[in-house]
Amino acid sequence: MSAPSHKPSVAPPAARERVPRRGPQGTAALGKTMDVLDLVGLAAHPPSFTDLARASGLPRATLHRLLAALIEHHMVDVSAASGRYVPGIHLLELARRTWEQMDLRRAAAEAIAELGRRSGETVHLARLSDDGVVYIDKVECDYPLRLHSSIGKRGPVHCTAVGKAMAAWLPEAEQRALVARLDLQRHTEHTLVTPQALLDALARIREAGVAYDREEHVLGMHCVAAPVFDFRGRCVGGISVTAPLSRVDAARLEVCAQWVRDAAADTARRLGGEPQPAPG
């Protein structure tokens, strides 16, 4: 019987299907760095420096420099015992954040579609990120008069219903630190522009279970939002309905508030979490 052939654990970049990287001049180093990261992350077994040099075809000095940068940013780690390279902890953090966001969008898809049908108004799904609100999904209303927004757009925390809904359920120390960092810019005469006013509002929101933006961000527009909780009991997002006062009065917005709460509760259940109890 012949001896089994040895198969290298690291495939060179050319052996894998890749989308050619095209970009402005100066991106070649980034491309090489990503190739090295792929070689480490996709290897069947942790590669050695020699494995990476052979698979990448890079000069040893260049490879040393790229690996040092990846290690510095915790994208790659090296075993002190074996000298072999493994994916770094920051990759896990990035994967977790990406997975949570994808999970949230998937879990909320049916709920926000139904909320859009029931309310007839624009629905947003959002997360907190870097002291701001990021809209990760939406259901657009059919009316020409509406708040113009887009997925991926950032918004302020202090004067949006969905931002306040999420901030209200942060742990107290995190909440105070966030409020202290925020630029409490005045957008309208109704905007909360002092830290204490915002903290007081967040406490009321936590008691009520929903948050309102009553022309605090854009004159003529109001909004109601509720938080979404995951299986750990953490607030991982928020769902809101936004409408112009000329079409939706305060009483109708109160009706929407219960639908928003229902959508948030349905999304939480799909994430394995519990809905926020109704205010007592």
Please provide a written account of the structure.
Strands 5-4-3-8-7-6 form a 6-stranded antiparallel beta sheet, sandwiched between helices. A two-stranded antiparallel ribbon has the order 1-2. A hairpin with a 6-residue loop joins β6 (211-214) and β7. The protein contains 8 helices and 8 strands, in the order αααββαβββαααβββα. α1 crosses α3. It has 280 residues and is α+β, with helices and mostly antiparallel strands. It folds into 2 domains: 13-87, Arc Repressor Mutant, subunit A; 96-270, Beta-Lactamase (2-Layer Sandwich), CATH 3.30.450. The longest helix has 31 residues, at 89-119.
Q: What is the CATH topology of the largest domain?
A: Beta-Lactamase
Poorly predicted ranges (pLDDT <50, ≥5 residues)?
1-8, 13-25
Question: Largest sheet, if any?
Answer: 6 strands, antiparallel
Subunit arrangement of the protein: single chain
Topology (elements, then pairings):
Layout: H1 28-41, H2 49-56, H3 60-72, E1 76-78, E2 85-87, H4 89-119, E3 122-129, E4 132-139, E5 154-155, H5 161-167, H6 172-181, H7 195-208, E6 211-214, E7 221-229, E8 235-244, H8 250-270
Helix pairs in contact: 1-3, 4-8
Supply the key terms.
single chain; 280 residues; alpha+beta; Arc Repressor Mutant, subunit A; Beta-Lactamase; 2 domains; 6-stranded antiparallel sheet; two-stranded antiparallel sheet; 17% strand; elongated; disordered N terminus
